[in-house]
Amino acid sequence: MRDEYDFSDSVANPYITKKQISLRIENKTIAYFKDIAKKVGVPYQTLINSYLTDCATKQLSPKLQWN
Prior knowledge:
mainly alpha
């Protein structure tokens, strides 16, 4: 093994398409997605990601109304 390596000509991995983040999500919301995920046979985090990706692809915006 070398003492030093030269990464000056390296390029970013083009296959990395996801980024790990932390979100604060209500317990009831997580339970909702876990229930659906169990019914369709996918991990709940994959289901949430698919849902959010679909919203982003369709450029959907939430309609917020403050009472």
